[in-house]
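Holo model, magnesium ion. Inputs:
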Amino acid sequence: MVTLKIQTTKVYDDCETAYNQNYPVMIEEGGSRSSKTYNILIWLIQKSLSDWDNKIIDICRKAFPSVRDTVMFDFFEILRRYNLYSENNHNKTENIYKIGNNIFRFFGLDQEQKVRGRKRNIIFINEANELNPDDYKQLNQRTEELTIIDYNPSTEFGWYYDIQTQDEVIVFHSTYKDNPFLPERIRKSIEAYKETDENYWRVFGLGIRGVSKTTIFSNWSLVDEFKGEGELLYGMDFGFNNETALVRVLYHPKGIIVDELLYKSELTSDLMIEELNKLRDSGLITYADTITGDSARPEVIQDIFKADYNIKGTRKGKDSVLRNINFLKKHKLYVTKRSINLIKELKSYKWKSDKDNRILDQPVKLNDHLIDALFYALEDKANETEFAVGSVSWT
Ligand SMILES: Nc1ncnc2c1ncn2[C@@H]1O[C@H](COP(=O)(O)OP(=O)(O)O)[C@@H](O)[C@H]1O
Ligand SMILES: [Mg+2]
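Output:
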């Protein structure tokens, strides 16, 4: 028997409770970074080291790439941290790891062949609100001892709420306050939602059920003038059939002021430069101001750069839209009254939903040119401070 000195959180104790009381299904519902995933993994590892023999333990979520980048990543991080990892026990092609005679298998529900017909003793379904009811039914039916589920309760309805009335299901809650390992920076960034987005605060802070809200931004108000403290930044989105959009921003951690400067379709590079020159004549921009423009149009950026404007391309990258949204949601946003088109875009900017009316963590890409320009202006700030949240993760 191996005993490890591993520090754990209440989530670990929740697993013990569910298992010792022979519950076939355990739900760990909670806010962002409440230590759910990490401590469920530690518990599974600890059990495999000390008590279990010949068990099959499956760990999954909806899509394999997210398994690989999150829960499987954490699993190996924990093993390495405690010097438990051994290359010999790791089948990297099949994503299988052995602890003693116990086998851990990692997969995504998008790997159809791996889902059907597999039996196991224990399953951990990570971010279970990505699954539909049938996915869950299939997995649960083929699990002999214990199904563990974790998620952020970001939806108003779902099978993972419906099953909670069943006798065989035990439910636990946790929030970021249950996680003493959380860096101060992340704690603060979760608490920022308290001021800016009530629904996000409920779900990701307090871990209580969200209300269906499809509008993405509600943390903004109108101001008369573009005036205040902060760093001056410009963002530009290029279009031809669509509008070319330019905003200027005063960025301060306590609040972001935005002003719409340009919103016009059918602009070639030359015409864009003309528009910039007009703005320069009115003192709304100078050659020295930093403009971040959509890197999808490098030739336009080149043209504007050659006309002496200080423009650079965006970096974007994986999950950048979500990161930008989360970043903006943590701030109070002040929009100048004259930014008529931006106000329209903010009002109509919504999350996509799927055929079951579940809200997805992607915005509807429609009428978002000024919003994109705003994201570009703030891209560097978002990259500096934002962390990836859950699936969205945000989680
Ligand atoms: N027992 C622990 N030991 C060390 N670090 C931990 C522990 N539990 C949580 N953490 C840290 O907290 C972070 C967030 O925990 P995580 O389990 O990912 O939260 P959740 O799944 O609830 O969003 C982890 O990435 C890890 O850095
Ligand atoms: Mg998690």
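The pocket of magnesium ion (ligand 2) is lined by residues 36-37, 390 (CB under 6 Å). Residues 349 and 365 are 8 Å apart (CA to CA).
Archived with the compound record.
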